[in-house]
């Protein structure tokens, strides 16, 4: 085939970061195209850009390598090929025509030239050492095939496809006239072989995560160091697309955890070292700003240090929006704020972030409230069990979130007057220890243990109580309480006169006096799950009487309660267990009563028995009916473990209580702000039925 001296191909020269579209014509001339991969965001710009991509600060926009600017870089306009019109130049017959790309006509671009052969070579025109890379380049070609007629645009698109495969840093198309026709050679320069990783600025990003991200594409690593990784595997060519996926996964790791962090710079350095620059926005400062209802700044009543100590977000930490949301919830839980929000802003050019917490305080920290409830100790009368209450309170004493409450509860028989002071977080303590001081004067029904007296003579237990308790969380979902409580308790008749024996002659006090004195050391451990019906709960408490005076009672009482729920389809299964034991000399009215709404349903309160020991188990199946209404089927069993006769005076035996029993029934529950409202009907093993009404889940 004769040489075609009237048609020449033209290759372009491109060098990052600038890009010129001009083309130069000369016979088989190749201009170098070198790709020095380098992508950087300055730290200050990183914070500004990151914040702009956070609508409402709750959605992190994943910015991959190409999404942040490389996709439109000259890398993807790496080479061009032009076919020019032929003109006779000098005496030798060589064509020396040059034409600017921007001035090309559409007809020139659409002119087709027959290609006899297509090859992929290295930048020097020699065979590639790695045949797998040659295969990758050939597979990327779409239009360029042997014995095909190509336009400039089609060849240019194939050049882009080779670069887009991710394995090559340059691609130069070269056309050579041979006696067999025009041979099209794509001269490529592969990326370097991966030899190691430099990762800078990643303070919270786990090294194992980075290793795992690179392992899929580049093999395994023996160690991860900051700033460098020493590989135990080498030989895989760096693939830009795979590198983009790795960067996307790293940015996704930050996004999933709500952290202000992303890959802000990537560079493939000499020797096959990949350098990742990670930018993490540390908290520079946290400020509190008080706002009024209109959003204007105002003076606050709460001390700023009282709010700041509630926050888990501290200066120097990488800011997390998830952690910030928890801080907002914690400040709202103080009970003195109507609205709380956190606004992050760039801290100048430092690459850090300043946090401003906007708080709107409630108009007054104090007030008067009223309410009502149900007492489980009243089983008869026209207003059986109903209690009314009134309270005067202040929720933010001295601006320290300390709380003072004076309350009075009054029922048909019940009465409780209580003064309670609570410091939710003792100043100077770093364990979130709270302190509660309580003084209380109460009168409650004695029917739980001693039953109704003949001729409807009422029996009440009066208690004067004072104590102090300290509580703090010691593990996630676990809370502990310790304290001391003094109590003076005695029995009274319906006129309020003290009595020491009931109608059956059973003693009502352990000391034989009109009242019993005791100083109790209290310990309690509480585990709570998420709070929904499928969560678990465990409570263990112990009271130990201290021998401060010879006449004061000394005994040990332990009690435990557990609840576990699990769902099977729409149904929820709930298992409950409680049990306890008393050792030592204790008042009869402190025995464990069995039977009632939160014990064995189908019985009145305390009518199964009362013992020094007890165990109660319950099983329930609830299912949705309509909206907030659920149906429930349940069964309960309780026993005093044969300990009823060991209670001083054997009040259960004097009243012919069985000591054990079971009940089963059905009910409905309605979800409410107060908790589940329970209306249940149960039969006991004596074939007697009874309605029960309660608020909240079983204890």
From TrEMBL:
Keywords of this entry: Membrane, Plastid, Plastid outer membrane
Localization, UniProt: Plastid, Chloroplast outer membrane
POTRA domain sequence ranges: 281-362
Primary subcellular site in the record, as a coarse category: plastid
TM region positions: none
Annotated Pfam families: Omp85, POTRA
Domain of life (superkingdom): Eukaryota
Signal peptide, first to last residue: none
The name this protein goes by in its record: POTRA domain-containing protein
Lineage, opening ranks: Eukaryota, Viridiplantae, Streptophyta, Embryophyta, Tracheophyta
